[in-house]
Model the fold of this input.
Amino acid sequence: MNASTMSVLTEGHAAQRQVPWRRMAWVTWRQHRVALAGAATLLGGLAVYTLIAGFQMHHAYAVAAVCHPASSPTCGNLFLSVNQMNPVLAGGYVLLAVPALIGAFAGAPVLAREMETGTFRYAWTQGFGRWRWALAKLTTVAVVLAAAAEALSALFSWYYQPYFAARSPALAFTEMSPMNPGLFGPRGLTFAAWTLAAVTMGGLAGMLIRRIVPAIAATLAVYAGLAVATGMFLRQHYLAPLVTSRLNVPYTAWITTQWLAKDGTRSPAHGNQAIRLFQQLCPSSALGEPGSTGKMPLSPVQCFIQHGYTQWTAYQPATRFWPFQWIEVGWLLALSLLLIGSTVWLVQRRAS
Amino acid sequence: MNVVEATGLGKRYGRTWALHDCSLAIPAGHVTALVGPNGAGKTTLLNLAVGLTMPSTGVVTVLGGRPAGSSAALNGIAFVAQDMPLYKNLSVADMLHLTRNLNLRFDQAYGETRFAELGIPLKRKAGRLSGGQQAQLALTLALARRPRLLVLDEPVAMLDPVARHDFMATVLSAATEDGISVLLSSHVLTELERVADYLVLLSDGQVQVAGAVDDLLASHRMLTGPAAEAEKCSQRVVVHVRSAGAQARLLIRGTAHDSVPQGWESHPVGLEELALTYLREPAAAALPGPARSGQARELDRHKTEVTQ
Done:
């Protein structure tokens, strides 16, 4: 072995070394700081609003909680003022749009901009390597944004904490389930998980569509579709619902379905059919006239029970909040990993 | 060592082959010009060499056998793509810092010195530089990586003559002073005579001519003589350029010492003329021994005619 082959070998060995991952930190920050700042502004604005409202609410709650006697008109007014503060940010519904906005405006351009402007030809031919570049960038952006979203989510949970912790029924959520979309999505860990999924969705959309504006639109559309489908069809099936024929189902339960049965067979009547059945069985009550036995008109349920029907209720109890959170976080995390994996695979495979 | 080595390399986009059965070996230490008409497959070949594109068939390695696109390859190659893609909203200093972070080797001092020499302010956004300055920025970033092979795709196509001259001067000094091998594609032939000492001529997705410029020039002659007697020289003719008049011009394989038929004159041929003549006749080929295919060898002997 002579000197020249030696030098080739040592250089060959040096060439096996890879640029350290941590170098991508500055690169990602410098290239995406505007998007990150935009997301921070959105989250920060909502946080400040929640914080101010939260201090007012917590203060009003503290005053109302020690009010005695509870039946006095003064206390009643204090209770009322606390309950009026309940629907901050439209009861949480406003927050459901936040992950979509972050995914679309901060996530989608990460790769779409490189493809649209052609700068991927620069980025992918640097020593760092293209799949590592894509993985580092996308993961960093997604995790940072998810963490920021989780901070807002924690603040939102803090806002509602008195309602859930309240001992007095006058101050607690007596008519709201924690499974309510506005209270389920933005609290716990699902908010961060949805943000993570939205950003990775944006990443893949950008890589597939390769144009910023269409990628943003696609991210918004796909996210909205998935979020609505989850809330309307999927979430209620995470665990088998409890079924009861009792009528005093707790208000905090999330009632998924109700149906009537007679002699062990399920009645097809629901909705308008149930109303017609009610009119048929108890015509006078349906018209609001006093029933045959009492002075008050019968409610539809009372009428059905009087005629031998049973009302069945399938519901998810409020105690399943955390199991449901973990199930949703679990599949969203798996989805995010799948999306990142597909994106990195596409980056590595794609011809220019 | 070969800086680029391709065996049976092909790239298909849909039904069209941008590059087909391309075998090629470019030795180190040259400024290689990759020449060919638009659509000949120049960009495809370069993208394959730097690992931006995956081949449909065959293999391409760089810097003595490193698979194209591998981190070992990327560490030794710097590539400046067509139209000089830069992050327009980043400053020159940011681009320096960015490139430094993305590479194992980076000569920050070289970059800063070059920008000072070129009068490019470090704080200016890349998008606000002139076309010539943007080209110099992209080139300086590539050279500051201290590559062993510099690949440039149509680097001067968009530049005015002064910027073009300055750009090529930087490339040449990198090649001569630092011993960097250079592979550049161009359809501007005039610049090449000055810079290139190795020529690869690509036509219709295949390598038509490949070799050191000196060898190619020494082994080709241009014969001029009466068109009616063109048959006399048929044995060695590569391309027959038929002019309108009674004079014929024949590009032949041969040296200055070869005998010339009576009534004919033999002239040395320049690089531009050689390239241009070959480009007019895609069927003609001049390839070094081991690399050429059977088909090419046959075409080599084939006498072909073109009307000028």
